[in-house]
Amino acid sequence: MKYLPTGRASRILSAALALAGTGWGHYFYEQYGTTAAPYTPIVEKFDLTALPGSKLRYYIAASGPEKFAPGDSFAALVSEIRAAADVWNQVGSSSLKLEYGGLMLTPPVSSTPYIVIEFSSSIPQGLYALSGPQAPLGALATAADGSNFYPIQHSRMLLPTDMTSLASYSELTFTTLVHEFGHTMGLQHTLSSSVMSTYVTTGATRANPLGADDVAGISELYPAGDFSAGTGVVSGRVLFLGGSPVNLASVTVIAPGMDAVSALTNPDGSYAIRGIPPGQYQVYATPLPPAFEGESGNDGITYPVGPDGATPLPPSAYFMTSFYPGTPYASQSAPVSVAAGSAATGIDFTVSPMDAEDVYGVRTYGYVTKSVAVPAPPFVISGTGEDTIEATGVGLLANQQISPGLSMGVLGNEASVIAGSARPYAAPYDFLAVDLSISGQATAGPQHMLFETPLNTYVLPVAFHLVSSPPPSIASIVSYTNRVLAIRGANFSAATRVYFDGVPGVVRALTANGVLIVVAPPAPGAYAANVVALNPDGQSSLFAQGSPAVYVYDNAAPPVLAVSPATLAPGGDTKVDVAGQNTDFADGVTRVGFGTSDAVVKSIVVAGPNHLIVTVTAAANTSIDTAQAINITNGLELIAPALGASVTLQGN
Questions:
Q1: CATH of the domain spanning 360-467
Q2: How many other CB atoms sit within 10 Å of the CB of residue 490?
Q3: Distance between CA 547 and CA 549 in Å, rounded?
Q4: For residue 211, which of 189, 232, 228 has the smallest C-alpha distance?
C-alpha cells in the first residue's frame, strides 16, 4: 500500500505566501512556502470547482489483471473497486465524492481532474499496490476557507497484473483498495492503525474500514458542513532536549474503546490534531518507523518539500516515546480533555533522542476458529474472559526468545495481559503470544496495546477489538425465484449486510429463526459470486470460515445492446438511447460510463429492464463512437465491447 511520488521541481513559492498557523492534522502531500517558522503546509488536493457535478471520476483499465485467484474474475474485482470507492462516499463531512467513469481502453488526456486505475507488473517488492497524485500540479489556488492549495490534475492507482495472492473478496484486498483510494485523493500514511496506516499495523476491516483518523483527514481536506463544530483540536510542539524542533514526529490522541487520531509535526515541531471526537484522551509523541521493503521513506511517507518545490524535509532523529505531560509510561500520563468546537492547546513534549527504535512495526493476530487467523482480532466479551493474542514485529524476539526486558500491557482497564503468559512460538516463526484477561464489564470497541522495553514504550493502536458476539457465518444459500435467496447461518441481525463480491444484496427480512431473505444483484448467467456477510461491529463471515460462500446464478443468455446516436455531440449534451436484450436494468444498480473524462454521464433514466436513456456531456473537439465507448455495469455484469459484449447501432 503505497503512493507514487509527485513531481515537485516545477513548483516555486515565495516566502510571501506563508500563512500563520500550526499546520494540518493527519497527513497530506505537502509543501512549505518558507524556510523558517511559522510553517504552514500547502497541501495537494483536488479543486472541486473543476469537477463536473462536483464529482471526481475514476476509470478502470479494461485490460484487467493477467492472473486471478481461483474462482475470481475481472467483474468481481471491478465490483470491489467500486465498493471501496463508495466507502469514502459515505463520509458525510467530506465534500469530495467519487464516481465510476467506466472501463477505459487508454488513459484519458483531459484538463478535467480524474483518477485512473491500471495494472502493472512493476510494483516494488513488499507493496500490494502503488497510488498517489501525479504531476504536474495546477497553479496555486485558494479554497473557500481562504487556505492555499495545489490542485491535483490527476491521480493514479496501480494494482498488480498478477492477483493470484489477492482474492478480490478478501479483507486484505478490500482494505487495500480503500487505502489506495485515500492516497489518490491526497491522504498519506498515519500511525493511528486506521485504513490509511500501512498494512503492518492497520486495524481496518472490510465491515468497518474507516477509523476516526481517516474521517478527520478526508473531512479536513474536503470539508462539508461544519465538521469542526462537533469535534475538537489538540495542538502543541515537540522539541528535543535542548530546544531544537522535531520534524515529522507522530502525535496521537488515544483512549480505550475509541479510535486513535494523529498528526505529524511541522519543521518547527508544531502540530495540530483536528477532527477529534469529544472525550478524555492520553496523548503521546513517537517517531516515524524506519522504511520497510518497498518503502522510500520512514513509514512510506513522501516527505514535505521546501519553497523550491524539490528539497525534501526528512524526519528528525529517532527519539523515545513520550506521553503527556512528559513520561515514557502510559500509566503515568495525564488525561487531556477534548471538547466539541474547542482546542486543547499547549500539549507540548520534550523528547530524548535515540539511535534507533527498539520496537516497531507490530502486527497482532487472533484465532476466531482454529484455522482462521484474523489481524487485529475480535474477542467476545464473555464470562470466561480469556483469549490469546499473537504478535509479530521488530524487537519482540531475540534468538527465538522474548527480548530481554520486554513487557506487554493493554491501555486502560477493559483487558489486561495475564502475568507470565508471554511465550515465543517454536522456530522458525517470529511470533510471540500472550493471554489476555477480559473484563466481563468491558465495553465493545477497539483496544490498544503497549510494548515496553527498559528504555521505551511502543504503542499499537487497535491491537484487538472487543465485541459482544461471534462473527456471522453462512451455512447455506437456497434460491427461490428471481434472485430471491434464503441465507442460513449464525449471528445475523437486522443490520447484517450481505455482499455478492463487491455488490450488496437487498436484505428483505430476518426471519424469526434467523434466516436472511436477500435479493441478489444482477449477474451474468452461471456467474459464481463470492458471498460474505458483514456485521456492524466490524466482523465478517470470513473471520469464521476463512473463505466465502458461493452462489451460482442460473444460466442465462448473454446481454445484447443497441445504441443511438452513432457519436456523441462534441461540446454539448447527447441523449443516448440504449435498447437491451437479456438485460435487467434497475435504478441504483445500473451504471453507465464511456471510459474517458471527455464524456461525463449526467443522468441515467431506467425506462425498463431492457431500456436506458442516458444523458452525456462530451468535451469540445472530441469524436466519441457511442457503440465502441459505452460500457454498462449492472450489478455484477460488465457489458462492454472491450470485453466482447455485442453492442450495435440501432437500426443497423
A1: 2.60.40.10
A2: 15
A3: 7
A4: 189
